[in-house]
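Read as amino acids, tokens; as here:

___
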Amino acid sequence: MTESRTTKIEAMLSAAFTPDELLVTDQSHLHAGHAGARDGRGHFKVMIVANAFEGCSRIECHRLIYAALGQMMTSDIHALSIRASAKKPNLFR
């Protein structure tokens, strides 16, 4: 099920932002037993580079990503770590 959620997150973000770079990592295994994860929702890390984030603050980038993921934010995702940028340098360090 985790693979399909990761794939779905990638597909939704790709459709919304047409990113130059996108990496979605399932980190749920790092939070096993965590009270918030007991409901089956996962922990994910997103690193994305897309022109859509040009001129956006960090909070604006996060809001755009949350909106793009829509219902998944309440049904499949418990925690989402985000690194978003319009420029490539240093994002994946």
About this structure: The domain at 2-85 is CATH 3.30.300.90 (GMP Synthetase; Chain A, domain 3). The chain has one domain: 2-85. The beta strands are 21-26, 42-49, 77-85. DSSP finds three helices and three strands in the chain.
